[in-house]
Amino acid sequence: MRFAKVPRPRGQEAQKQLMRLDAVDRDVRIVDDGDHILIPLMESTESSEVRSLGYEVVEGAGERRIVYRSPLTEVQARLGLPRQLERLLPSKWELLGDVLVLCLPPELEVEKERIASAYAHVLKARAVCQELGAIEGAYRTPQMRVIYGQGTETVHRENRILYKLDVAKVMFSSGNKEEKQRMAKLDCRGETVVDMFAGIGYFALPIAKHAKASRVIACEINPTAHHYLMENVALNHVHDVVDPYLGDNRSLPGQGFADRIIMGYVGTTHEFLPKALSLVRPGGIIHYHETCPVDLFPQRTMANIRSATGERGIEVLRLGEVKSFAPAISHYVIDFRAL
């Protein structure tokens, strides 16, 4: 390839001049040639333009530099869509193990297979699922369809925990990552913990493996999620700590035995507060999750808690936001001690 041969003292000046002409190939390294530096030139650059600046043009071998391009930029380059469609490509996605979840606007529906293939190649995904709607119902079942590859069962690693799941059958929210990390950092030594909405073990596994709880009772009503919860207990070698319980948590036997309750569910969480309060011992802690309009927090959430606790005293330990849930609505968590 061609280089502009520039005396070392004029190196910075020459780079600026050539860059103003869009003449520098930035994907190739500049060569140090002792008294001179060799600046790589674009193929489209006329040698006469370089010589007019007073620099010699020479031939040589160039070493290409590794240039970072964002995954979205790589996808755009692969697809070559018209600009009006390119702007609609998703800039956010969820990569769970080797299965990718994408949300596509209707305008891209006709190109969905080609788009899925491009994202799969760039992000090294084995399969791509298209998210069709919100997670709803007591079973928290996602609405998905496969638009690239085959097989939606995978193993996702997060915070040194292995989560096996079928992406098309059970939910996994990466948006709760910081809250899962917070649970993992608790000191639960000697505690009996009840996870009332365990799913595949989102909070139960970090509590058992990292927070060192003595016992974790993990309740899950969805048989499919419970199946993966049991697999994940084995995968993470916490079978001596976690007791999976299949069924409605309101059927869990016993009273006043839990040192800590995890209520990692949103929508109708307040309906389960009476059961949580019956399970927790005096002085025990409840981690209560709820979605709430931003301008009504914490008043509405605290009203729900106090309505359930009645005359039983509470001590609020922490109020926090887990993530944005919808426009002007957030997912919050309140830690409180039941006295």
Q: Could you list the spans in which at least 5 consecutive residues all have pLDDT below 50?
A: none
CATH topology-level name of the largest domain: Rossmann fold
Number of helices: 10
Structural class: alpha/beta
Q: What's the CATH superfamily of the largest domain, by name?
A: Vaccinia Virus protein VP39
Termini separation comes to 77 Å
The assigned CATH architecture of the largest domain is 3-Layer(aba) Sandwich
In total, the number of domains comes to 3
Main sheet: strands, sense, barrel: 7 strands, mixed
Tag the structure with descriptive keywords:
GMP Synthetase, Chain A, domain 3; 339 residues; alpha/beta; elongated
Give a description of the structure:
By secondary structure, the chain is an alpha/beta fold. It folds into three domains: 2-59, Alpha-Beta Plaits (2-Layer Sandwich), CATH 3.30.70; 71-151, Met-10+ protein-like domains (GMP Synthetase, Chain A, domain 3, 2-Layer Sandwich); 172-338, Rossmann fold. Helices cover 25% and strands 33% of the residues. It contains ten helices and 17 strands. The protein has helices at residues 11-20, 47-52, 71-79, 83-86, 112-123, 177-184, 204-209, 223-235, 273-279, 299-309; strands at residues 2-7, 31-33, 36-40, 56-59, 94-96, 99-102, 127-136, 141-148, 153-158, 161-166, 192-195, 215-220, 242-246, 258-263, 280-293, 314-326, 329-338. Strands 13-12-11-14-15-17-16 form a seven-stranded mixed β-sheet, with helices on both faces. Helix 3 (71-79) packs across helix 5 (112-123). The longest helix is centred in the C-terminal third of the chain and has 13 residues, at 223-235. The chain is elongated. The mean pLDDT is 94.
